[in-house]
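New to this. Explain the following:
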Amino acid sequence: MSGVIGRLGRGIGGAVARIREDIAAAKLRDPAARSSVEIAVLYSGLHAIWSYRVAHRLWTRRLRFPARALSQLTRWLTGVEIHPGAVIGRRFFIDHGMGVVIGETAEIGDDVMLYHGVTLGGRTRDAGKRHPTLGDGVAVGAGAKILGPVVIGAGSAVGANAVVTSDAPEDSVLVGVPAKPRKRKSGEDTRALLTTPEYYI
C-alpha cells in the first residue's frame, strides 16, 4: 500500500512540476504576462496543452474514444485542437491559441512556440506518418501552415502565413507561399516574422 501511495505522490509531484515549468515558459515568452496566477487561470493555450497531456495518456493506453472526446471538448472550450496521438515535448507554448490545429502524427520537440492560427496538418489520407515534425526551439508565426510529414530543424523560425511543404535544416528562416528555407543570418532577430505576414510569391 505504501508503494502505491509513493507512486501516486511522485506522479502528482511530477505533474505539478510540469505545470510550473509550463507557466515559467509562458512568462518567458509572453511580454504581456503579469503573474503566474493570471497565466494559469486565463491562458487558453496552456489549458489546451494540459488537457492534451491527459488525453495523450488515455490514447497511449488505448482508451481512444475518451481521449478523442476530451480533445474535442477542449477544442470547443479553447479553440485549440490537438489530436491525442500527437507527441509533444516540454515547455511547449501556444500564444493566444485560437485556431491552432495539430494532427495525429505530429511530433513537437522541447521549447517550441506556436502563434494563433497555426496548422500542423496532413496532405494525404494514407496511414502512417502524415504530419510535421518540429525540432527543439522552433517558433511558428501566426497563420502559418506546415503540411505533410516534413521536418523543420531545431532553432528554425516559420514566418506568419507561410505555407511549408518541404523539409528545412536547423536554424532556418521560412517565409512565403510556398515557403523557401534560408539560413538564419548571424545576429538576426526573427521575432517580427512571427506576427507580420511576409509574402514572396
Summary: The chain has a mean pLDDT of 88. Residues 2-29 form the longest helix (28 residues). Residues 23 and 39 are 7 Å apart (CA to CA).
